[in-house]
Amino acid sequence: MSQAMKLLVIGGVAAGASCAARARRLCETAEITVLERGPDVSFANCGLPYHVGGEIPTRDVLAVQTPTTLKGLLNLDVRTRCEAVRIDRAGKRVEVKNLVDGSSEWLSYDKLMLSPGASPIRPPIPGIDDQRIFTLRSLEDMDRVIAATEAGMRAVAIGAGFIGLEMAEQLHHKGLSVELVELQKQVLPQLDKKMTMLLESELRHHEIGVTLGDGIECFVPTPDALECHLKSGKVLKADFVVLSMGVKPDTQIARDAGLTLGPRGHVVVDHFQRTSDPDIYAAGDAVETEELVYGERMALPMGGPANRQGRVAADHMLRSGTAQPYPGSLGTAIVRVFDVAAGLTGWTEKRMRDANKPCASVIVNDHQHATYFPGAKPLTLKLVWDPRDGRVVGAQATGGEGVDKRLDVIAACIQGKATIDDLCHLELAYAPPFGSAKDIINLAGFAATNMRDGLFEQAGELPFGDAQIVDVRPKPVADAFPLTGSINIPFPTLRANLDKLDRSKPVITVCAFGKMSYFAARVLAQNGFQVKSFSGGIKGNIDPRSPAKLPTA
Amino acid sequence: MSQAMKLLVIGGVAAGASCAARARRLCETAEITVLERGPDVSFANCGLPYHVGGEIPTRDVLAVQTPTTLKGLLNLDVRTRCEAVRIDRAGKRVEVKNLVDGSSEWLSYDKLMLSPGASPIRPPIPGIDDQRIFTLRSLEDMDRVIAATEAGMRAVAIGAGFIGLEMAEQLHHKGLSVELVELQKQVLPQLDKKMTMLLESELRHHEIGVTLGDGIECFVPTPDALECHLKSGKVLKADFVVLSMGVKPDTQIARDAGLTLGPRGHVVVDHFQRTSDPDIYAAGDAVETEELVYGERMALPMGGPANRQGRVAADHMLRSGTAQPYPGSLGTAIVRVFDVAAGLTGWTEKRMRDANKPCASVIVNDHQHATYFPGAKPLTLKLVWDPRDGRVVGAQATGGEGVDKRLDVIAACIQGKATIDDLCHLELAYAPPFGSAKDIINLAGFAATNMRDGLFEQAGELPFGDAQIVDVRPKPVADAFPLTGSINIPFPTLRANLDKLDRSKPVITVCAFGKMSYFAARVLAQNGFQVKSFSGGIKGNIDPRSPAKLPTA
Asked: What distance in Å separates residue A219's CA from the closest CA in chain B?
């Protein structure tokens, strides 16, 4: 590589900062310039909601680096408040506008890195330009939201995705009254609906108003509030509004330069983050890459992939012979909402069905560690696999603790092309404070392979038509939390009470967690009944806060 | 399968209970008999230390099942205090002795499951038969230790493996004065020594006496104590002693029956848990199976593998056509000691070297989640791989939180035959409360591939001979916690101070966590120095409780 190699990086947050840092590590002599439109570089954007809510008490921990520290650490020329406005690909130069004094100049490059990021979506709804409607993307945005929290007590959060949920939680943490509005009929629309019931319950438990399946019609300023008029006619009064309705890539400069873009405006890159111009790379929220399971196109505006993509780009620029490719994205993500968490990796059932892919799935319930050890908390895991080859394609988890661990393990499994058989025998760390002899991931593997092998069938959604519903929970539990339309035959008494059931009608077995109902389905199937088990049980299907206890077995 | 298939299970704890339960789920009509020498079946043996210490307050949660509950749930014939004394393989029957009334009978079988477990080792040391010397394997053992904790205040725990560490912690938790003795020169000899320094520090921090590299010469009763005389001459006074010196398989009955045993007396089984007799299966602590990475023979007395092996055996007995094999053992394990944890999966560097396998390894330090989020705790990860193909073969982790997660993810990676390149791009769940944009596992992958690609060399153990030691920590840190024999050049000032170093001598860069020293090594290497980085830094190599803060970058 030439001694005077010039690397120009447009955008200095996750992907851009990683690219510049890696490039410097690989090449002390390169001239590396980083342009950042905003006032801050390499800040911790994932931490913004937590400083709004005060859980991260000091602002300066979010401003990870400054141009000065980056000069010392990496010998970078970082220029904030400088916007790249045009790329001259033939001349290999970029026109840069100084947003402070309005001056312009051209900077030349040998390699150009595009990491401009994405902007929050602000749909053209009447009233959207009210000064009390915020988005949260930069430290400046954060400062404005904090000022609003100090001026008013009523917040409306629009959009219940990852950021929207974090905002709702943190605004409540700060002591505000919070209303959350989501267009889909569930919170966290990235997940399958059943797997979001615990989050929804947790929000309501903390007296956050949750309005689902409703959109914003308009914003109307009144003397005492900014009114959010919903499509349903419902009106929410706010002192301010935070929009978390997703992001769109900031790729106008790439479009103008004639680089290939995807259908939603993302820069298309290959596994080495190369755009359609061999001297221009791109990474982060602005790009579209492959997803890891089926190789389909995917844009994933997340910090982890952005950081790693930036590093791959630098590797390929500076040592293309040994650079290793970005393997594709999974879409692993997690959110904490008060005392529970939920997240996913890979494909959901919904996404599989929307894509017309054959799909099998199962929900299992257990705890994050041995139930006999103090502090055991319920945990629910949904596993999604491709029934054609048994390959695990996705998982979702929710519960009080250990959600991140299970998602991470299954993410690693998906990346390793594991099948449901492989999950049965994962040898995970077990001591009573940390796990179970059979971890919930093993249990998911057992349930999935049992389904594949015909050992049990799952019952789908309620209602069950004319099937006999057999509730096999202990009698005190069934009495306390009765399941309408069912007959209670506690599992240990089932074998002795088969004559209470009509062999001419299908049976659906139900319990709290889906374990005893599976045991019962095995007994009934082997006694000639046509039977399905309500997998996931009452907790996974009906009431995630059901106080029905897990029967021991 | 015949309607009257007879399954006889010898040993009713982890492997035996799992086998019986799975067999019942597969076959309602089988006659399943479980023989257990002790008074309890299917109890939670991993919970025993925690009831001794009182952290698990009630005893009955450990007695997971009884013969009566197992009759109801699984229609099993469970016979406690019944010992199998002889197998007549030709006649397919077992002689069973009733330990209560002394009577004997023969029970016939179609399939026999051997899951007798293992017994604690009690070496023939003078005085070993003193009534105040306990082992901990059964609920009865536990009751005896509890009685001892109520009678005396001075405990000596011998053996600092997983159980020994749990015992030491729990005896301290109960308020006793505890001395821990270990023959090896480190606690938790299963790990590489550096990865145990935090555990050792944590034990001493809690005023547990730790004596390493010393063995027991004899036990001597005196009027006021049971004295433990060590080989070094040291004498520890105890009111009672708990031995945790490992276990030996209870396989005399298998030996007498002529089944093939391994070199240390374990029953040799194949991937379907079959012994050398096709109608006899074995699983759990009594067997030797393959380990997963290199296919070598391995005995692993752990609850998780025992449970899953028992299930595999039942599958193969009852539906051999579709049964899936046990893939082999990894040896994943973890222990909590007060506020820290440590564990491993797969191969350690020590074990690789003892087996004369080519071995590469690196230690990386970070935190369990984003450092800017409150509650970040240091975490240290050691990665071990085979340099011939880059395959990950093992990992060890220690720290305050998130140890189990990293071990589990890497266990899944090893089972999926991941390489160090694959670790770089694991897409793990990231939100500030749960992880980092680049998880410590990604960092380990980065470090390992950087080493493979020649981007940096690791410095080994201190002392470093005539090398120039360059401490690149911030000056206040270096002043407060000086590193003898080093020159302090804080990393941001390094490029401007290259002339302070002698280019004719090798350089070793050092920092707190091994990150800045790597950065410094890159700068120096590109400036013509012969340089190595002290990977793992002061925390990973010298002082795990070093209060030197992680420099941000």
From this structure: 31
